[in-house]
Amino acid sequence: MDAVAVRQPEMAPELHPRESFIRHYIFSIDHKMIGKQYFLTTMFMALVGGAMAMLMRTHLAWPDNGVLNPEQYLQAVTMHGTIMIFFFLTVMLTGGLGNLLIPLMIGARDMAFPFLNMISYWTFVPGVITILLSYFVPGGPAGNGWTAYAPLSAIPAAEGGAGLGQTLWIIAILFVVISSLFGSLNFLTTVLNLRTQGMSMGRLPLTIWGAFVTAVLALLSFPVLMAALGLLLLDRLAGTSFFEAANLIVGGAASPHQGGDALLWQHLFWFFGHPEVYILILTPMGVVSDIISTFSRKPIFGYKAMVLSLSAIGFLSFLVWGHHMFVSGMHPLLGAAFMGSTIIIAVPSAIKTFNWCTTLWHGRIHFTTAMLFAIGFVSVFVTGGLSGIFLAIAPVDLYLHDTYFIVAHFHFVMASASLFAILAGTYYWFPKFFGRTMNETLGKIHFALTFLGIYGTFYPMHFIGIHSNDRRLYQTTAYPFLSHAGPVDVFVSLSAFLLGFAQLFFIVNFLWSLKYGPVAGDNPWHANGLEWTTTTPPPHGNWEGALPTVYRWPYDYSVPGAQNDYVPQTVQAIPLAAAAGAAGGGT
Amino acid sequence: MPTLVLERHRGGSLRGVGGRGRGPSGGDAAPGREPTPVGTGLLGVAAFLAAVTMLFLAFTSAYLARRQEAGWFAFTPPSVLWINTAVLLVSSGTLDWARRRIRVGDAAGLRQGVELTAALGLLFLLGQLVAWRQLAARGLFLRTNPHSSFFYVLTAVHGAHLLGGVVALAIVLLHSWQGRYAAQAHAGVTNCAAYWHFMDLLWLYLFVLLFWV
User: pLDDT tens digit string along A21-44?
Assistant: First the structure.
């Protein structure tokens, strides 16, 4: 059974025959095409989710103008959260970036199971269609928050949008869950088994480490959500009583359910939900590590510490779900345990932050757009991380729970940070996949406006949150104690509009650069990763000839005495600078 | 400015700190180009089973938590479940026998064993339907009480996974007809058997959980 690799550089360069339009663009099994499909689909969903946010902010700035009625407002909140988390960030990071990058960065021809990869995308699409369809059913889309807490989500008569809209919501999320499971199974197997010769786990780029730990988290947490959604669906459609207590009066009529447990939904949901937020941040952490190292022209500081902290965060993410439920009622000792485990997560997170800063320290920093977004990531991650420490403390959380303080916290640490990394990654890898570089001027305007927009939108939310403004409150003007919040809300909304407007620069830049951007070479950033050793854009099968062999980690920047300030992973012996001696050797 | 440079002098060594020296390839994207590394399929099956384990752990914790609440009353297992359990256990035996046959190159024996296993699997599923009918005859339906709800849900989800196993067996059978398996090359059979045995164990676990915990 010795399947020893046989290298055949003399093989014909044409790996795959030309494919028909449908095989190439629609039912493709090439990970790069599937990645692009995911990328564009999730970008579209981000626009839908962003439009929801703009609607919410329009209403909140001028709550008396009746832009949205209470029901529509809650539906906008719900769909914004649902679409951004499930249909944009999760799938963009795994299906999009994961698909595009994993095989290229580990030196594989494709994913371990390319056909399953295609199935994964085509399981995601029905989810997208279902969630979009839910806008057009009687009662409108789900209005119960992205967490779908029972019993509101379990009883169709509970509110507008709790009818068919909520059922479609559950089905749509089930599609996403199944698609993500297929994807993460594939990523896990690919990273473990398809690394090229010399690409040990200890030489993996941190992006791949992030994607790998993410795949483990997704594989272990999504099934829990699947179970919970299945039971919820039965409660709604088949009249079982998993999540609703007995004797609920809904709409004047007694609900037929008997003795279910609404807290059970919260436990199941957050057992998934907390790993989920790390699914949204671990890949970004890896992406940012790679970009900061490349544009500081320095090795990443503390590679092993980075890997260990990624893994530690991944492990801890399964032990902290209770911190979402401090006010839901739990044994005080249990609360204390969850508080402790939550605070511990600050340690690996701080290790990563310090390592990014020390990588930048004394580097020769190139302020490309990708680098700006990567540094912006560190900024918003720290801002959001610090408020996380407040919220981890149970007695403080009792006060701040469900206020705008929470909204500010997770929009910084998870949503903005993740978005910044996605944008950084897009600017960084765009040349590899589309053959052209994105416009730097437009990119820098995009960054500046986005950065201002993010801080202008979410930073003031801390203050109105401490001021006890409930995060789902429809009309702030109804409460005298919130009268001071009015002008802040206007400022927040204007910042949010700026943030939305800034994304136009990105869209224009993206589309314009596809056709007119300056042609990029194989390695426009002088980076070390394997993906830069192949042609641009890479062919189906990724390398024309034999797969590359790896001799070093991807962070050999500014090696003392070397000819260039970068040494790609495929270089066996470092060519020395002429002054230091002519003996280059190797390649 | 000193920088940390790992592995700079590793030069000629390909193995580095443990890189996989074998089969650096990309699955069936490039057929016949580089062989898929050994055990990729089995790793995929293991990852899938990890996800299945989490699914049923979630159901288990829901079951144990829900049992503490009001409206719970337990019923005794339908008698046919004992027969079903025996059938499923035997099917694991026949599949293992089939796998032993192909290890000595007996493709016909493999096919017999797999056919028998698939038939026993379908018989098990039929038996589960009978169990549902027995419960229904006792007036226990999906919504009657939480115990019966969980019984129907868990048996249905397990049954769906087992049906997937039957499909996998059919594919193994098809591949065997195409002559794809030999004494030294039968990873597909091994992967399928791993899945099947897991479903067998899962059923034992559910049987115990539902009626003896």
Answer: 888 888 999 999 999 999 999 999
CATH fold for the domain made of A24-215: Cytochrome C Oxidase; Chain A (1.20.210)
Q: Residue A159: which pLDDT band, with cuts at 50, 70 and 90?
A: confident
For residue A10, pLDDT over 50 is answered with no
- As for how many domains chain B has, the answer is 1
User: B7: nearest CA in chain A?
Assistant: A552
DSSP annotation of A406 reads H
Say whether B26 and A103 touch across the interface (CB within 8 A).
yes
CB B109 within 8 A of CB B183: no
Backbone phi, psi, residue B163, to 5° = -60, -40
A107 and B38 in contact by Cβ < 8 A?
A: no
ipTM confidence score = 0.91
Residue B64 to residue B150: CA distance in whole angstroms: 11
Q: What is the pLDDT of residue A128?
A: 98
B9 lies within 8 A of chain A by CB: no
Tell me, letter by letter, the H, E, C secondary structure of A493-538.
HHHHHHHHHHHHHHHHHHHHHHHHCCECCCCCCCCCCHHHHCCCCC
Number of Cβ within 10 Å of residue A262's Cβ equals: 18
Interval B116-125: pLDDT, tens: 999 999 999 9
Residue among B1, B7, B14, B20 with most chain A CBs within 10 A, to mutate = B20
Find the closest chain B residue to A8 by CA distance.
B33
What phi and psi, each to the nearest 5 degrees, are found at residue A562? -80, 160
Tell me how far apart the alpha carbons of residues B203 and B196 are, in angstroms, rounded to a whole number.
Answer: 11
B20: in domain? no
Closest chain B C-alpha to A118 CA, distance in angstroms: 12
In this structure, are residues A575 and A562 in contact, taking their beta carbons and an 8 Å threshold?
yes
Domain ranges in chain A? 24-215
User: Which residue has tokens 């949204």?
Assistant: A280
Q: What is the pLDDT of residue A158?
A: 79
- Residue B135's domain is classified under what CATH number? 1.20.120.80
Q: What's residue A15's pLDDT? A: 53
Identify whether B117 is part of a domain. Answer: yes
Distance from CA of B134 to the nearest CA of A (A): 20
**Residue in B17, B30, B153 nearest the CB of A203:** B17
User: A388, A409 in Cβ contact below 8 A?
Assistant: yes
Please check whether residue A224 touches B, CB under 8 A. Answer: yes
CB contact under 8 A, B30 and A541: yes
Q: DSSP for A422-475, please give it.
A: HHHHHHHHHHHHHSBPPPHHHHHHHHHHHHHHHHHHHHHHHHHHHTT-BTT-S-
Cβ A242 vs Cβ A229: under 8 Å = no
CA distance A581 to B1: 21
Answer yes or no: is B33 within a domain: no
Contact with chain B for residue A572, Cβ under 8 A = yes
Q: Is residue B118 part of a domain?
A: yes
Asked if B20 lies within 8 A of A195 by C-beta distance, the reply is: yes
Q: What domain range includes position B146?
A: 80-212
